[in-house]
Structures are given as structure tokens and as C-alpha cells.
Amino acid sequence: MTDQPQPERRNFYGRIHGKTLRQSQKAYLAEDLEAYRLVGITREENAARAPVDFSVGLGERPLWLEVGFGGGEHMVHMAAEYPDVGIIGCEPFVNGIAMLLGKIRAAGVTNLRLHPGDVRDLFDVSDDGVFAKAFLNYPDPWPKSRHHRRRFVTAGYLAELNRVLQQGAEFRVATDIPDYVRQTLEEVPKAGFELVHQGGEAWPDWISTRYEQKALREGRVPHYLTFRRL
Ligand SMILES: C[S@@+](CC[C@H](N)C(=O)[O-])C[C@H]1O[C@@H](n2cnc3c(N)ncnc32)[C@H](O)[C@@H]1O
Questions:
Q1: Residue nearest to atom 19 of ligand 1 (CA)
Q2: 78: which residues sit within 8 A by CB, 6+ positions away?
Q3: Among the atoms of ligand 1, which is closest to the Cα of residue 12?
Q4: Cα(68) to centroid(ligand 1), Å
Q5: N or C terminus: which one in the chain shows less Cβ crowding within 10 Å?
Q6: CB 149 within 8 A of CB 195
Q7: Residue 10 pLDDT more than 90?
Q8: Ligand 1, from 138, 153, 214: best to mutate by most atoms within 8 Å of Cβ?
Q9: Which pLDDT tens digit goes with each residue over 80-104?
Q10: Which of 64, 150, 53, 147 is nearest to 112 (CA)?
Q11: How many angstroms separate the CA atoms of 116 and 90, rounded?
């Protein structure tokens, strides 16, 4: 027996690895990941779970959070559109991380950092009110009812999101799944957010992501929701 606190075991149900990486993608991971990776998020690097200063290397600027950036289209687009903001992204899918790094090289943006893993590990080491905006683009839909509790728009994730957002911060959700819209409209207000807008028209600074393109090809209809943290 040990008196040491045991690390919380978390289930991550998504994919970590996909198709074999191309040589160029392996090179992005080998050469660029360390420059953009946030240090101190993992339990190995920060067993005490001390708060991490995400602005290291970014200077004094508002920080925005993107949960599950996928291939990084939106994250890189936002970094280019808003050079005075620091964009922090989380994504455990290695192929997506490699794609993001390739896009960072191509766009030449530097005002972004990433955690190559679960957003809950980032929440653990985030100060209250550290983020001024958050994006959840095409979250995993978990269509079976018994899997709905795995969705991001559930009490545990949303309480932490509320905590790490500043008062008045915007929280944007894009999804093509009607039942995800339903659950978002039910759960997000319960977690201390007010609905500002919802509908089929994207935000003026939106860029369509890989998953949105897939949804459109397959005939599904995008839905965009904007909340404000109370
Ligand atoms: C359906 S994909 C959408 C990707 C991208 N946002 C887009 O619109 O193309 C959902 C992504 O969320 C990521 N994801 C799921 N759970 C996550 C978690 N707990 N923390 C961070 N990312 C997560 C998955 O790995 C996946 O890449």
C-alpha cells in the first residue's frame, strides 16, 4: 500500500493513430512538435498538477482554446486571422497533430501552442478564467444513446470549461448531428452559459473543417451555436 495519491485513470474512447504517416508528417512531428507542445500538461511532467502558464513564448495576449482540432484547419486559420491572440489546441489523434504541424509550416503562423492529448489533462493544470474564447468544432457524435455520456457536452467537461473561461467569454459549437444540437442546448445552459445564437449560418470568421466537408458531402446540415459564459 502507498499513501501517494493515485493518478486519475481516464478513458479516452477516440482514435490515437490512423493511417501510416507520410514521411513529411513524420518529419513535422520529429522536427516541430517540441516547439509548439505545451510543457507540464502530462502527469509525467507535472505529477503535482500545478497550474501551467500557457502564455510562455506567446507574450501577453488573450488565449483561446480549441478542443479536438482534428487536422488543424480552424486553429491555423484563427491564428492567422488573429495574430494578437494565442490559440491553444488539444488533440490526441497523432495524424491530426501531424497535419496541424504541416499547416503551421505552410502558413508561417507562430501564435499557437498545442497539447497532443486529452483536453481534460489541460483542464487539470489550467488556472480559472485563463481563456477568453473556446471552440468545439464537430465533436465526436457518439450516436448510440448509451454512449451519449462520452460527449463533450456533459456536466463534467462543461463544468471545467466554465471554470477555465473568463466571464463573458464566447463558446462556439459546430455540429452536423441534430441530437448533438439537442444535447448541447440542454446541457450547456445548465453549466452556466447563455445561448446567444444558433442556426445554419456560420460565424463571419469561420473556415470549413475536414469534418464539416465530410458532413456536407454526406448530405448532413451544419449547425452553429454560440454561448456566452455567465
Ligand atoms: C469528429 S473530429 C473533428 C475534428 C475537427 N474539429 C474538425 O472539425 O474537422 C473530433 C476530434 O475531437 C478529438 N477529441 C475527442 N475527445 C477529445 C478530448 N477529450 N480532448 C481533445 N480532443 C478530443 C478527436 O480525437 C477528434 O479528432
A1: 118
A2: 64, 66, 85, 87, 135, 205
A3: 19
A4: 3
A5: N
A6: no
A7: no
A8: 138
A9: 999 999 999 999 999 999 999 999 9
A10: 64
A11: 6
Phi, psi of 58 (to 5 degrees): -105, -20
Amino acid 7: pLDDT: 52
Ligand 1 site-directed mutation target among 124, 161, 211, most atoms within 8 Å of CB: 211
What is the pTM (predicted TM-score) of this model?
0.96
Average of per-residue pLDDT values in the chain: 95
Q: Give one DSSP letter per residue of the chain, joined into a string.
A: ---SPPPPP----S-S--SPPPHHHHHHHHHHHHHHBPTT-STTT-TT-----TTTTT-S--EEEEE--TTSHHHHHHHHH-TTSEEEEE---HHHHHHHHHHHHHHT--SEEEESS-HHHHHHTPPTT-EEEEEEES-----SGGGGGGSSSSHHHHHHHHHHEEEEEEEEEEES-HHHHHHHHHHHHHTTEEEEEEESPPPTT----HHHHHHHHTT---EEEEEEE-
Q: Which residues line ligand 1 (CB under 6 A)?
A: 14, 67-71, 90-93, 96, 118-120, 137-140, 209-212
Tell me the pLDDT tens digit for each residue of 98-152: 999 999 999 999 999 999 999 999 999 999 999 999 999 999 999 999 999 999 9
Residue type, 119: V
Residue 93: all three cell numbers together: 489523434
